[in-house]
Amino acid sequence: MTRTLTRFLIEEQRRHEHATGNFTALVNDIRLACKRIATLMGKGALSGALGEADTVNVQGEKQTKLDVLANEIFIRTNEWGGQLAGMVSEEMEQPYLIPKEYPRGQYLLLFDPLDGSSNVDVNMAVGSIFSVLRCPDGVTEPAVEDFLQPGTEQVCAGYAIYGPSTMLVLTTGRGVHGFTLDREIGEFILTHPDLRIPETTSEFAINASNSRHWEQPIKRFVRECQEGAAGPRGRDFNMRWIAAVVADTHRILMRGGVYMYPRDRKDLAKAGRLRLLYEANPISFLIEQAGGRASTGREPVMTVKPESLHQRIGFVFGTRAEVERIERYHREYNDFEFKAPLFGSRSIFSSPA
Ligand SMILES: O=P(O)(O)OC[C@H]1O[C@](O)(COP(=O)(O)O)[C@@H](O)[C@@H]1O
Ligand SMILES: [Mg+2]
Ligand SMILES: [Mg+2]
């Protein structure tokens, strides 16, 4: 008999002598929210919910109608169960506290209800990303600070990807496991147990239209990939960019690769494009649990102490050896920066372009 997500969660729960079942119930509610969004996404234009809403979120981005609906689904599906004390969403400026008519629990849920919003109207893969933290003991009305926990404090992280098939991929700190939605029985079936990222890769992902804003270490890494067999890497690389980090993450968990949305000079006020708490941290937990590495380019993402709910961060993740190479290029560049007068324009960092 195939193993369902429900069975997987119960078996995980049985491993913890003092487990109350609250965590299992929480993940089951998150699963239901993702199924509801999958059904909505599957309707496409028939849902009548394509296009932009006339609202702007805290990031200053125009919201799509589906951003708003997906957010509503996550809130309504998870608020009443009794496992949560509060939630944080990409689409809401302040934390959402569980209404008084519902019991409050010991967990905090942080999520990106719809990732890859720019793909929605063109029927491309999108997803939902979530991270679960413990609410500090004795806190029933969590304040912003209670959510600002480093990624290492996550008890669970995952995403749902709404593609040709709907999958849910998660970790509770014991490996990464992928479940495929069997639409006939409405249950997620364990189809990809113990995902491991391959040790080597010839695939990189970055939005090349930003190249003039990149810092030198990223320019060097991408240039060397593009030079391929004719350059210092001595082999050819291919490029992919889905414009939905959840889908780029899924590809990398399936067959390896390296994703970069680095800190750049496009908007110096922003430390990057992706959000630390509900995009970079949950993806980092998954990637590291699958044997990869997740970094800002300079340090592991999950050790970064968050300062605000919607802070952005430079993000590089995937096949460990490639991320370590990018980190080495940053260190070498920092060293070079301090000794610049000696090297002039002939250095490995000076881009020919
Ligand atoms: O438009 P760009 O620069 O390619 O950025 C794409 C990136 O932005 C995102 O769409 C941001 O996420 P949201 O869609 O949740 O806002 C990422 O998923 C994706 O990797
Ligand atoms: Mg997103
Ligand atoms: Mg989003």
TrEMBL record:
Provide the Fructose-1-6-bisphosphatase class 1 C-terminal domain boundaries: 197-330
- Taxonomic classification: Bacteria, Pseudomonadati, Pseudomonadota, Gammaproteobacteria, Steroidobacterales
| Cofactors | Mg(2+)
List the CDD domains: FBPase (cd00354)
Where do the annotations place Mg(2+) 2 binding? D112, D115, E279
Q: How does it assemble?
A: Homotetramer.
GO MF term (any one): fructose 1,6-bisphosphate 1-phosphatase activity
Fructose-1-6-bisphosphatase class I N-terminal domain spans which residues? 4-193
Pathway(s) this gene product operates in, as recorded in its UniProt entry = Carbohydrate biosynthesis; Calvin cycle
Q: Which reaction does it catalyse?
A: beta-D-fructose 1,6-bisphosphate + H2O = beta-D-fructose 6-phosphate + phosphate
Q: Any idea where this protein resides?
A: Cytoplasm
Q: Which family, according to UniProt?
A: Belongs to the FBPase class 1 family.
By its UniProt entry, which InterPro entries does this protein fall under? FBPase_C_dom (IPR044015), FBPase_class-1 (IPR000146), FBPase_N (IPR033391), FBPtase (IPR028343), Fructose_bisphosphatase_AS (IPR020548)
The protein's organism comes out as Steroidobacter gossypii
Superkingdom classification of source: Bacteria
Q: Which residues make up the binding site for substrate?
A: D115, G116, S117, S118, N207
> Which positions in this protein are listed as binding Mg(2+) 1?
E90, D112, L114
**What is the protein name for this chain?**
Fructose-1,6-bisphosphatase class 1
| Keyword vocabulary terms for this entry | Carbohydrate metabolism, Cytoplasm, Hydrolase, Magnesium, Metal-binding
Query: How many cofactor units bind, and how?
Result: Binds 2 magnesium ions per subunit.
What Enzyme Commission number(s) does the record list for this chain?
A: 3.1.3.11
The UniProt entry, under NCBIfam families, shows: PRK09293.1-1, PRK09293.1-3, PRK09293.1-4
